[in-house]
Design brief:
It is built from 11 helices and 20 strands. It binds adenosine-5'-diphosphate, aspartic acid and magnesium ion. The site of aspartic acid has 12 residues, from loops.
Length: 408
């Protein structure tokens, strides 16, 4: 039991998708109160509620206001916190639900992708001292002007870890529909293996590169505040995966996981002058327009000309093309191309730091299936390749086979 006796638990959408599941979560929480824990629970919206709300708004407008979208989406979590409180009352457990604004989860004003600035613990601690289970709406906050904000899709994980940090507890359980973090998305690869433990850096890289099991900012918080995340299933009592400091890990693999993501598009601006200041102008302008750029590759051609390719979120593609077309004219380039049916497939592992040939092997495995690599980027513990989205699933399977299964 942690010293201050507080445990933070987060239940994802599938764990609260029906009244039956909510009752089941309430029973699980009860087992913790009976052990003497003070329980703080963060919940997501029921099942696919967030998707349904987004579709509803899109039926009305192609380009709805971001402020109103956050207002809309935050309602999903408000439903599940109240239902869970009611379910706990029903089995004799005192509980109280709070929205993000009620506990003053203050964020910046960046609607749909807000960052947490501070959280007041006053109400939470008072309710805990009254022996109540405290249930908090995930994914939502409030900005300095009292607007409701959301933290980005999957953001309830981040709400939970941020609460664990301010409540000074080392333990945070993330309940989901899989029983831990696997070496690849179990929905794509049937032979994937559950990891007993994984380091913060590997988990961060996996999450950033497409492993949707954890919101990447939740892992950043966990690392910063040294919180052990236990990713586990709300459908069983089995141990899941512990996300922890690398020094405390018993077992380290060269590659701990293979991911793929398809939420980015590639843009190329062709035959622009190969001289100082051009890239600065291009990426400076994109940054000023709040466009997040991920991979960047520059290739030099003849006559002091260069082409620059980079990836941006698909949502930002049309805005990016507009900006690039303008700059292309200024630079005297030969045009702007884009491709949105791309996938970024990646291999991740801390062991890569001390191993040779991982990149070469990855390229070889892809080439054996005739999969063309359009862009490459590397970090200390990850290698990513942009390929045609058509081959994403095949690429994940063959890379998993080569790096994880053959390496048992
Ligand atoms: P929740 O609603 O509980 O937050 P999510 O759908 O956000 O659940 O995350 C769980 C899903 O993440 C799983 O159903 C699984 O398909 C997917 N996933 C992707 N990559 C991985 C991975 N490497 N390990 C485990 N699950 C993964
Ligand atoms: N309900 C939000 C979403 O679907 C937040 C979350 O589930 O973590 O993205
Ligand atoms: Mg999630």
């Amino acid at each position: 039991m942690p010293q201050n006796n507080i445990i933070v638990q987060k239940y994802g959408g599938t764990s609260v998708k029906s009244s039956e599941r909510i009752k089941n979560v309430a029973e699980r929480i009860k087992t913790y109160t009976e052990k003497g824990f003070s329980v703080v629970v963060v919940v997501s919206a029921m099942g696919k509620t967030t998707d349904i709300l987004i579709d509803l708004a899109k039926e009305i407008s192609e380009n709805p206001s971001k402020r109103e979208m956050d207002m809309l989406l935050s309602t999903g979590e408000q439903v599940s916190i109240a239902l869970l409180a009611i379910a706990l009352h029903e089995i004799g457990i005192d509980a109280i639900s709070y929205t993000g604004s009620q506990i003053k989860m203050v964020t910046d004003g960046n609607f749909s992708n807000a960052k947490i600035a501070r959280i007041s613990t006053e109400k939470i601690l008072k309710s805990l001292s009254e022996n109540k289970v405290v249930i908090i709406a995930g994914f939502q906050g409030i900005d300095e002007d009292d607007n409701i904000t959301t933290l980005g899709r999957g953001g309830s994980d981040t709400s939970a870890v941020a609460l664990a940090a301010v409540l000074n507890t080392r333990d945070c359980e993330i309940y989901t529909d899989v029983d831990g973090v696997y070496t690849a998305d179990p929905r794509l690869v049937s032979s994937t293996k559950k990891l007993k433990e994984i380091s913060y850096d590997e988990m961060l890289e996996l999450a950033r590169l497409g492993a949707g099991v954890l919101h990447s900012r939740s892992v950043e918080f966990a690392k910063k505040y040294n919180i052990k995340l236990h990713v586990r299933s709300s459908y069983s009592f089995e141990e899941g995966t512990i996300v922890m400091p690398v020094e405390e890990m018993m077992e380290k693999f060269t590659i701990c996981g293979i991911t793929s993501k398809e939420d980015e598009a590639k843009v190329t601006i062709r035959d622009i002058p190969d001289k100082p200041g051009i890239a600065a102008k291009l990426f400076g302008e994109l940054g000023a327009q709040k466009i997040y750029v991920n991979m960047i590759v520059q290739s030099t051609g003849l006559d002091n000309k260069a082409s620059i390719s980079f990836t941006v979120k698909k949502d930002d593609l049309s805005k990016t093309i507009r900006i690039c077309n303008e700059l292309n004219k200024d630079f005297g380039g030969s045009g702007v191309d884009s491709k949105d049916n791309i996938a970024i497939v990646s291999a991740v592992g801390v062991g890569m730091i001390s191993s040779y040939g991982v990149a070469g092997r990855m390229f070889e495995v892809l080439s054996e299936q005739n999969i063309n690599i359009e862009m490459i980027s590397t970090s200390e513990i990850g290698i990513s390749c942009v390929i045609d989205a058509l081959y994403a699933e095949l690429a994940v399977k063959i890379l998993h086979n080569s790096f994880v299964e053959e390496n048992k």
